[in-house]
Specification:
alpha+beta, FAD/NAD(P)-binding domain, Enolase-like, domain 1, two-stranded antiparallel sheet, about 25% helix
Length: about 200
């Protein structure tokens, strides 16, 4: 059984009335640095809208304070690069666009998949159920998204988050050496599969 009641940002009774702070669907509207429409008023975390995740809120806080402090080279939050993790059994993790979203955005895609059953470490752990899926832009090789279901995928997803942040392409991922035996090898195999070069299935 799953009970998913959702999360709502608490923006009631904050004294926003009469200010230039705008709200939308129960959340405070901010830019990529946490700034609102009212000078000197910032918002981060659940009140600033989805995704309502602790790691997103923490990173927003760092960005916001660095911007207020006037540090150079502060990058705005890129919601497309925030990993989503569901701590259930099996675990679920993702980052970026789904295949359907990429196609809806007019992108031609290449998609790779690799099953846990093809990975020696997953079998040795007694966790052979699961899959990793990667979505690439067919023309540029840009990693658009990654989606995983299975053991420890909430740990594995960060590899793709870093890759997206570095604007890594499929060539760089295919040429990366992954340690053996590890679950992370499935990440490599999924990339190889998108380009017809998968080894272990």
């Amino acid at each position: 059984m799953i009970s998913a009641v959702g999360v709502v940002g608490n923006i009631e009774n904050l004294g926003l009335e009469g200010t230039k702070v705008k709200t939308d669907r129960g959340c405070i509207v901010t830019d990529g640095f946490g700034r609102t429409g009212e000078p000197g008023v910032y918002a981060i975390g659940d009140v600033a809208g989805p995704p309502m995740l602790a790691h997103k809120a923490s990173h927003e806080g760092v960005i916001c304070i660095e911007k207020i402090a006037g540090l150079p080279d502060v990058h705005p939050m890129d919601e497309n690069r925030i990993p989503g993790c569901t701590y259930c059994h099996p675990q679920v993790a993702s980052v970026g666009m789904t295949e359907a979203a990429a196609k809806a955005a007019g992108r031609k895609v290449r998609v790779g998949r690799f099953p846990f059953m093809g990975n020696g470490k997953a079998i040795a752990l007694g966790e052979p159920e699961g899959m990793i899926k990667t979505v690439f832009d067919e023309k540029t090789g840009e990693l658009l998204g990654a989606h995983m279901v299975g053991a420890e995928v909430t740990e594995l997803i960060q590899g793709y988050v870093v890759a997206m942040g570095l604007e890594t392409t499929e060539i760089e991922l295919m040429h990366t050496v992954f340690p053996h035996p590890t679950l992370s090898e499935m990440m490599h195999e999924s990339v190889l599969d998108a380009y017809g070069r998968v080894i272990h299935i």
